[in-house]
Task: structure prediction
Amino acid sequence: MITIDATKKSLGRVASEAAKVILGKHKATFVRNAVIGEEVKIVNASKISISGAKKEDKKYVRYSGYPGGQKFENYAMLTARRGHAEAIRRAVLGMLPKNKLQAKRIKLLFIEK
Result:
């Protein structure tokens, strides 16, 4: 298990480092069609650095499945509702390939406050 300390690091830097390890790109035996990555533990998620006005400008989209069910929320609303771990999880999920292995790979991510 690889541990990443998120204290005073930007959201994208932490997410890209975690995605690289989850994919297994840091290993010489990397292959695209298998889950060979390691487990990643991100600590101090609440101390992550958000630059500029991203707390109000960064948008997250949800969709209920019903007509007119698309909902938008910003970073501040998301972290108030679900916590800082959800913002990191969504950032890492967006950096993983959109294929059948995505669900198995995201299970390798563990986030602590």
Summary: Residues 7 and 47 are 5 Å apart (CA to CA).
